[in-house]
Here is the input.
Amino acid sequence: MAQIGSSNGKTVNTWSALRDIVSHRQMLGLLVRRDLKSRYKDSSLGFVWTLVRPLTQLAIFYFVIGKVLGAERGIPEFAIYVYTGLTAYGFFSEIVGGGTSSIVANAGLIKKIYLPREVFPLASVGSAGFNFLIQLGILIVATLVLGSPPISPDAIYFIPALLIILVWGTALALLLSAINVYLRDVQYLVEVVILLLMWASPVVYSWEMVSSLAGDHTWLLEIYTNNPITLAILGFQRVFWMAGHENPASAPEDLMLRMLIAVLVGLIALLISQRVFARLQGNFAQEL
Amino acid sequence: MTLADAMTNSDAPSVIELDGVSKRFTIRKDNSLKERIVTFGRAGRRHKEDFWALRNIDLTVVAGTTVGLIGHNGSGKSTLLKVIGGIIDPTDGAVRRRGRVAALLELGAGFHPDLTGRENVYLNASILGLTRAETEERFDDIVAFSGIGDFIDTQVKFYSSGMYVRLAFAVAVHTDPDLLLVDEVLAVGDEAFQRKCLDKIRSFQQEGRTIILVSHSLGQVIELCDRAVLLNKGEIVLDGDPREAVNDLRDLLEGRRLAEAREDEGANQSGKITNVRALPDHKDSDEPLTPGDTLRISADLEYSAPLSNWTFAVQIDNHMGQAVYGASSKSLGMQLGELQQKRTFEMSVEDLRLANGKYFVNISILDEANRHLVDFPQAASFDVVSPPISSGIVAAVPRITEVR
Here is the structure.
């Protein structure tokens, strides 16, 4: 006979929650497909729309910030530089944004059927990942067309960079989705913060600009650089932005070490947010 | 030893064990971040209210039984079902369960309107715990049971509401559950489909599956369940024979209704109907009627202005609110003369053959065009006990003989 849910106020432990999710992996796949299929179901262009937003952003940043404001003067191959940053940041923001509202959006299911509730934020991670793959494909095609294919030993940075975004994005998605059930303000707050956070990472300007601006305040630069999203974006730029390799000042020292630490800290954050999620999920059905 | 004890002590293994389960809901009046901060701490406590939906519930259900959860609105039966289903965590106590569960709390809860019927079947089946291979195997059965036919590849937002619930029910019953939790969903679809649903439930019973049913249709509870649990204010009042539990619930509801009615008793109209009584002839007032008895219904009537050419009307409803009998001074071709001062009338109904259950008496004063001048709905009630040789609303004696 199996114990159902938590009792006497105790929460389910992480290990059994994980086992529960693994046993529902098929359903997780179907939920991701449902999200993707239903998103552009009745539009005639369909998935093309997933590309419209980042491409528009790229056009704005390339022309307005790059050409008009002149940011591209310090950054060779500015188009690839911006698109790399946008792809990475877009992935992160979609995980967090979609994840935060995932529990509330699936209220109908949560109130009526028992499922490990973690699957809903995880499904948004999955559908964000799908869009990320499409954008990544375009990025690779673009580098080939522009004649600087991303082939270098630095391609190894792809793995820690992706891990940082996945781990930190999932941790935030879990935590915020649970809090959002109790405080609906969170989802609107998250939208604003995501908008702001993009400017705290070297997406449209270069890390070099920040480091020369910080000057003697090395601690300020350290805080800026060790932001996990900044590290992930710098990592992706090492992979795809070949022009950066000619200039050693375009990235901080010990980038790989910093990224590995960010992954480890992220894993701890993920564990903590799962604990919070497990504690809060007991009352989901009645709060929705 | 009560019936419930007999059941828990039988040899069959138990599928559900609830041990001192309580559930507290906190009702908050501040919901936004701003309000929370403003009312933080001590002040916040004033914006909270505790409500115990369940208190100290001990319940053991053995395999193969069908249990009905009954009670008035807000008595905690749906909460109890959700606790059993694992949808709500109890505040206190432990829930243990065995086997695969399918919860029919709301049909089509997992349906996405933009996906086709086929896609939704796969999604919903996997939510209910079926693997893809299992769903594929049963897909044709599901479609056949639902009667959706060619619409299976249409987006479900174009379905009629009947098609929607039929498909959802078909998926749920094909997930092969050991324990089926049903909340008020048997009343869906047209009559033919309802019959199909009930047949499916009966075949589940025969296959030895356990069913827990929440229903306001008390007739259904008596018909389907081996055991009924009556809840009131989150506590178990009675656990045992469905007929007994249903009768107790009716008394409970009747008590509540009378208490409410006493507050605004007949004062809204310019006439008054008071002192209504419905008693079996030659019997104590508490004793239930048996088929063939005579029922005497009496009432005091008065009216603010002199009223001539009026009708004294009596109607008997069953517990479903369905009119089972009606008679009036007009139907008897009688003139009762002018009404103003209090006059007392009695209608005796001879040889009344109603089936088992609780019945309500409505008294009305009508004008010459049958417009209702004064009504006293459910002015009195009486119980009928009939031998369990037949069902329905009429108690007639059946006899089967072979004629050829």
Remarks:
- The first strand of chain A starts at residue 2 and ends at 3.
- The interface with chain B takes residues 1-9, 26-27, 30-31, 34, 37-38, 41-42, 108-115, 183-186, 189, 282-283, 285-286 of chain A (CB under 8 Å).
